[in-house]
Amino acid sequence: MNTGTETAQRAARLALVGALLLVGLWVAHGFVPALLWAVVLTIAVDPLHLWLRAWMKGTHRIVIPLIITLIAALVVLVPLGFGITQALREAHDISSWIGQAQAQGVPVPDWVARLPFGADAVRDWWQTHLARPEDAAEQLRMLSGGEWLAHSRAIGANVAHRGVVFGFTLLTLFFVLRDRDALLEQGRRAVLKLFGPAGERVGTQAIRSVRGTIDGLVLVGLGVGALMAIVYLVAGVPHPLLLGAATAIAAMIPFGAPLIFALAAVLLLLQGSVVGAIVVVAIGAAIIFVADHFIRPAMIGGATQLPFLWVLIGILGGVETLGLLGLFIGPAVMAVLVMLWREFLAVTGAEVA
């Protein structure tokens, strides 16, 4: 009788815990991305956190998490503010150009005749779609009037949502850093209790993979952006610092940087600099080739113990599934799965032997 009662109570407790977990996930699902971002940022800045704790002894409880959180905020907000400022400066000129183009059309520019190939095709397309006022108005209708206002409202709502998520991410980052030691100890005890030593190995591998992916994506992306900013400046590309920052962000995503190279080349073509456009694309392609085939595989693969093909699958699949957050979560998941597969093969081989 007692055994039956205990079994029923255990089943009831499990059912209650499962129900509460589902309700909790349903209530907090809107903040899950912010929580995951906070975890990723915590793993990324943990070496800095430990270094500051060793340097500023006795003040690590509040001061150091606050300093790191403010640095994280500035790293995002300063480039974003710079980009918004530049965009606002260009907004008036763009609006005037659109109005003039819709009223008078856009004549074929001189640089089209200097293109090394495809000049006739570009000239024919331009005369068909932009040279006459009615054609130009049709092509540019999305950039003016009510449709643009509707798009700007949707963009504004999305930016507001992203701002809320970013603010909650920073708040979570502060509290996670403040309670780092206690959270690590609680997590270690829970993992050992639930999964044993294998669970601790999985957690260690996941943390190592996230940190290696951050180094391979973020640091390499910043390096590519810095080098290309110099190239843009020398080649005479408008707003080289802004485009360099955009290149750094795009370079964190596989195959993203060439889009910025192409934009810089188009801007140079509009200025009539065909040679400059070719130089920018050629140097950019060379930098990306070295970064993607030598530097990034060594940094990510060395930390995750993964062939770069699986790293690439984790990155691309993660981006498709989770967006930008998937850049860091995807490779970590793949690394854990490969680690478990290798351990399974090792155990199976030992049993056979």
Describe this structure in words.
The mean pLDDT is 80. With 353 residues, the chain is mostly helical. 85% of the residues lie in helices and 0% in strands. It contains 13 helices and no strands. The longest helix is centred in the N-terminal third of the chain and has 42 residues. The chain folds into two domains: 141 residues, no CATH class; 158 residues.
Q: What structural category do the secondary elements indicate?
A: mainly alpha
Radius of gyration of CA atoms, rounded to a whole number = 26 Å
How many angstroms does the end-to-end distance come to?
Answer: 47 Å
Helix content: over 70%
Order of helices and strands: HHHHHHHHHHHHH
Average predicted confidence as pLDDT: 80
Main β sheet profile: none
Poorly predicted runs: none
Number of helices: 13
- Kindly state the number of beta strands: 0
Q: Can you tell me the number of structural domains?
A: 2
Shape: elongated
Strand % is under 5%
